[in-house]
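>> Question from a student workshop board

For tomorrow's exercise we were told to take the sequence and the ligand below, predict the bound structure, and bring the output to class. My setup keeps failing. Could a helper post the expected result so I can at least see what it should look like? The ligand is S-adenosyl-L-homocysteine.
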Amino acid sequence: MEDGYKHRGLRRQLVRTLKKKGIQSSTVLDAINKVPRHFFFDEALLPHAYQDKAFPIGEGQTISQPYTVAFQSEKLEIKPNDKVLEIGTGSGYQACILLAMGANVYTIEYNQKLYERTRKFLPSIGYRPKFFHGDGSQGLLKHAAYDKIIVTAGAPNVPTSLINQLNKGGILMIPVGDSKKQQMLRLTKVDDKKIKKETFDNFSFVPLLGKEGW
Ligand code: SAH
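>> Workshop helper replied:
Here is what the output should look like for this input. Compare the format with yours to find the bug.
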């Protein structure tokens, strides 16, 4: 697959759209400008790659809308070398954005076919997070603790295990709600006894499955 003049132009356009929608972080916008989102689409679907829309990726799952990816990434306040756990690898696009922002990324996917597909695909385009297969609704204890945790599927509640797996000062971004819409929450672990909770707009994710999911 090539990443030509036309693709780079479409990407700059997408960055302008995201700026207009309120994304300000230059680290996030640079990452969106860098990761070739069209590599995640079949050639025939290219016109969809740089629209600010979610898109089906098979197995009943979706590649998140660029605005959603940018919003969660911005609110995570990623610093270089932050250890980040992503729950819901899916297409791998969000993981690439976090890597492009300089994070050390651990990503876990429940669906075996998607896990296998993405684990092969991402390195082929130069992105190498650490891949895991299994139920991430209770985090990934084996490699805890993390500086940041991002959940990219809609959860019924905030799993306590995810808070437990955060470092002091760590941030959890998680959409919580019903199957149609979820409110974006940011939980900051100020210390072992104090959690700061902030609420943002509604989003629409596919459901988080597993023990702490639906
Ligand atoms: N981050 C993805 C979007 C993923 S859609 C991207 O950038 O494309 C949500 C993903 O979460 C789906 O792939 C789904 O299979 C996965 N998922 C759902 N429940 C899960 C769980 N308990 N653990 C890990 N992954 C889960």
